[in-house]
Amino acid sequence: MTFRNRLQYLLVWKLRVSNRRALEIILSGEVLVNGLVVYTNVELSQTDEVVYHDGILKEGKKLIYIAFYKPRGIETTLNTAIADNLKEILPFEEELFPVGRLDKESEGLLFLTNDGTLYDKMLRNENKTEKEYIVTLDKPIDENFLESMANGIKIMGKMTLPCRIEQIDDFTFRIILIQGLNRQIRRMCYKLHYEVLQLIRVRMGTIELGDLVAGEYRILQI
Questions:
Q1: Which of 23, 68, 181, 201 could form a disulfide bond with 217, CB atoms 3.0-4.6 angstroms apart?
Q2: Residue 3 pLDDT level (bands cut at 50, 70, 90)
């Protein structure tokens, strides 16, 4: 935890006082954190509320975690300058950020949150987290396809990592990756002369799509 997350820094920033004066204010017992008097330079989290002389210096943030079914045809971006962006369809007033990406023609699970700490952690660990997809192709799957996909295929100048794959029916398979290369599954299939007709992400780590349908969401407890 850095100095910027400490109560002293908040007082210096909000009250425009020196570091020494900020510590004096803390020791005087005039600062409340979540309704309780504090006498030490405590670490603050996103959810902590800080009050000084009945004035709120920092509002406690309610953290929100959402499993959302991104429909096909929607870009995974909050940039309103881009057509068909997420903001056009998300039914939330809060500013929520998507973790990871799904290309416009893909659909399924997006994890949305306003928890900046968790967001950063998940992005750092994105290539260590399992992602599971159900994929439908334009022609029947054969053993060579399954073996090649599982062992890795060279795309964009690099070999994909080995992955788990399971055939569901003649045209459909389940694949579990830890990589997240740009349009990875589509590029892998294209290299084997297959076209992806439908790609649905059904899981990210321990978060599952479940029975959600396009445009629906589920509030998560994390």
A1: 68
A2: low
